[in-house]
Structures are given as structure tokens and as C-alpha cells.
Amino acid sequence: MRKLMTLLLCVLLAFPVLMLTGCDGGLDHTERCRETGRIRVLMGLWPTASEPELVEIFEERRERFERENTDYMIVPSSFNFNPGTFGTLAHAGNVPTIFQAYFTEPRRLADAGWIRPITEQFNAMGWTNYMNPYMQEILTHNGQLFGVPRDGYGLGLLLNTSILSDPDVNLLRRDASGNAIMYRADGTPYYPTTFDELKEWSLAVNNTWHGRHGLTILTDGTGAGWHLSNIAWNFGADRLQNPPATAGGNWTANLNDSYVVDALEWIQLMRASGGAVPEMRNDGQWPADILNARSAMAIVGSDAIDNPIRIAPPNATLTMDHLALVPMPSVSGVEASALFGGVGFMFSNRASDAQVRGALKFLEFMGRAPIDSEHSRSALIEGFEYADNRGFAVTPTIRPWTNPAFNSMMDYIEREREFTNRQGVTRQGAINVNMYYFDSFFNRLLGQEGHEPMIRAEEPMIAQDMYRHMGIAVRAVFQNHNRNRDNLQGLLNTANLNFQRDLDRHVN
């Protein structure tokens, strides 16, 4: 992902003349093509050549769109967002009309002037009040809308049930067919719901098999701090950032709260006891631990549960039938918080009003608009079929829209419409996983079946910087897991001081 962005930048810098002369060339933000007069939309959502089947799908959508919207032309651009390099690209004008970025970014990008508001164009589409309120709050800044939601995810605990239900470990029981039993007769979970239980299960795996561990904990990069923030919430932390006490006041860091120390201490105990994989891990490395039975569990986003399957060789024994996603643990085991994040479509500050309108129109042809139309429905079905035929997991969608017509369409596609895969197997509904292993997570995430909603939005200000500083503390614990509580407090005091400097520099 990051290599592609670097290569793209190099190409643009090396061939500036070509970029300015052709309708389709580079990231020239000239509104209209000189030859045809069409409005150019630099579509930074395009798949790369490594996914030829997906490129073909997008090209078909492009052709349909341009036939029906003759004022527009779509200029494909495979753009991958990187918080560390985006400012340089935006300053040079090398950002497409529309691109994807994390939910942590809209305020930072808007304050820097790198993205533009789209409130007027969004409302003109007739989509006002259709957005998921959690997502709308994230994408709104100073009363203006700065993006459109693609999708969302929540953090949960991924289980390899084949390890946990092995007779030698005997943590999850098996039924007569050999499937893991997730719940007792009274409906209470077998799976761990507290941090103490998670530690006990992890030690049981480690004590049974040499070289296997209960849990993979992220220790490198922003992912380590990302997970620490959620663990800290479930130890009792309220805010990791304090908003201004008065109008015009400053945001203050709260990363050295005693509950965050509790969370870091638990991570240290997991590392010291052998319950956690001892090697450093980043967000791209945990899937191999699950695939290769190096660990039995990992904290992951609900959008990444099939990552171990995606990297598996053809003869791998691990399948989606061996994976379950359950709610995050907490101290008490009651209604834990799940960090809620996602990806939004945002718009370059160099995009004109007309280009923004064209990009929003094209979202319908991607199935990303809040309406039930022929184009939207067709694109969604294509997307689900592509995922299923590639062996990816299709789970219930965390809906970005509240429009009843859109959600009725989604319910039909996910639960009722017939799908036939390349092997000729037909099923009812796009969802292709055994929901017995996922119901508890998805039902509780949004507060279904009498539960309080688990979702909790990421901290609002420059969260990626916050994760980086918290991640440094996690890494230090893994490098030296013989620290006392005062030392752990010191690590977080340093993280807090450094993050406060970032807040003062970029926010206050």
C-alpha cells in the first residue's frame, strides 16, 4: 500500500509536463478535459493492477456512469492514504478528487486545509439526514460535512476455535459434529469475557503446547496504541483526551490515567507469563500467528477477521469455520466498549464543486450511496460476489446509512437473495459465515437483543499521534517486562507529555 503511494509520487514528479497535457494523465486538477469538455473526476478509489478482476468491475461501472452522465469523465487513480506523507502530497496537489482515509483524520485534514467541505453538494444529492449518526459526527467539523462514510468496524476478540476446543486444552467444548460450543445451556458465554479469564485461557494454551500462546498483542506502530486505548477503556478509563474546560481553552492529554496504567500492567503480565506471543507484532503480522497456530486469539477489527484466511496457502487446514469473533473483554465482563472506527471518502481541497458532485454521483455506481437503485443494488451484489468467490468472509454490514429503503435493500441482499459461487453452491443471502460464531459480537455492537451498544468512537483529536505515543509504551513493556508499577506510570507520563506537545502544536 505505502509503496504504491511513493511510486505514484515519483512518477508525478518525474513527468510534470505529461501530467498537464492529457485528459486522463496524472492528478491534474483542471476541471474540464480540453478535448471533450467533460468534467474530470479524479477517482482515487480505483483498485490496483494486482486485482485485475476488480479493475474490470470498476471499468464496467465507469463505462455505465459515463454513458448516463455525459458531462463527466472518470479518471482512475489508485491512491492509498498514509497520514505521514499525506501533507506533502496535498501541498503539491497530488491528491485525487476523492480518496479514502481513516475516521481519525477528518478534523486534522480539515484544520490543515487539505480537504474541503461537501455539505452543499451532499444535501443537493437528497441525502440529508441519511447518515449513521455516529459516522456523521466523526465526519463533521465546525458545522460542515467533510466526508461520506464507506463502512465501519468495531474491535473484538478473534478466536481460533480449533485450538480452544482441542481436547488437550478443553476450553471450548465440542458438540457431536465436532463444532465448538460457544454458549452454555443458559445462554451465557463459554468464551472469555473478563481480562482475568482471557489471561487464564491464554496460559492454558501456553501450558498445553510448547511454542503456542493464547493471545497476539500488537506491539509495533500505531496499532499497539490503538489496542491499548480500547483495553484501557475496558479497565475503566473515561477519556484519554480532555476537551477544553472553557470556550477557547486547550485540549489536554490524559494518557497517564491510573486505568491506562492498569491496562499496561495487564499487557505486561500477559507478556511475562507466556500468555502472549513474545515477539514484536504489528497490524500486518497477527494473521500469520492465527493461521500457523502460534496464538489462539487476537484483538482485531471486525473488517479484518478473514485476514488469516486471505494469506493461507491452498492446502491450509484453517478455514472461516474455525474462527469466531466475540466482544472485547472487560474487568467485570459486562457490556465492554468496542472501539468504533472506519473509513470515509474525503475530497481534495483542489476539487471544484462540479467535481465533488460527480464523485458523489459515482458513489451510487459503487453501491456506496444511501439509496436503493438499480446501479446501487447491482454494485453491492457484484461486491459481495467478488468477495465470496475470492474466499473472503462476508459478515453483516455495519450500516453507514439510516435510509429505510437502503437498509431494506441491504437486508434483502445479506439475508434473502440467492447467491451461487464458482463451485456451484447456492445459499440464501450474501453472508457466508456461520453466524453462530459471530452473533454475540454483531448483536451487541449496535445494541441489539436488549444490550447497550458497545461502540465507542475513537478519541477525537489527532488519534494517530496519540496511538503512536501509547504504542511506544507497549513496545517498552515487551522489551523489558520486569517493570514495577511506578515504572509503568513513568512510561505513560512520557507518552502523555509528548502527546500534549502534539496537541499544543496541532490542535490548541
List the total number of helices: 19
- Beta strand count: 15
The residue fraction in helices comes out at 40-55%
Head-to-tail CA distance between termini: 32 Å
Mean pLDDT over all positions: 92
As a percent range, the share of strand residues is 5-15%
The radius of gyration over CA amounts to 24 Å
Secondary-structure-derived class: alpha+beta
Largest sheet: 7 strands, mixed
Uncertain regions: pLDDT < 50 for 5+ in a row? 1-21
Q: What spatial form do the alpha-carbon principal axes imply?
A: globular
Description of the structure:
This protein has 508 residues and is an alpha+beta fold. The chain is 41% helix and 14% strand. The chain is built from 19 helices and 15 strands. The protein has helices at residues 2-14, 16-21, 52-68, 83-91, 106-111, 119-124, 133-139, 161-164, 195-208, 222-235, 258-273, 286-291, 307-310, 353-365, 374-389, 404-415, 439-445, 463-479, 485-506; strands at 39-43, 72-76, 98-102, 140-141, 144-145, 148-160, 213-216, 241-242, 252-253, 295-301, 323-326, 338-347, 418-420, 426-428, 455-457. Strands 3, 6, 7, 10, 11, 12 and 15 form a seven-stranded mixed β-sheet that branches. It has a two-stranded parallel sheet with strand order 1-2. Helix 3 links the parallel strand 1 and strand 2 (72-76). It is globular. The chain starts with a helix and ends with a helix. Mean pLDDT is 92; it is low at 1-21.
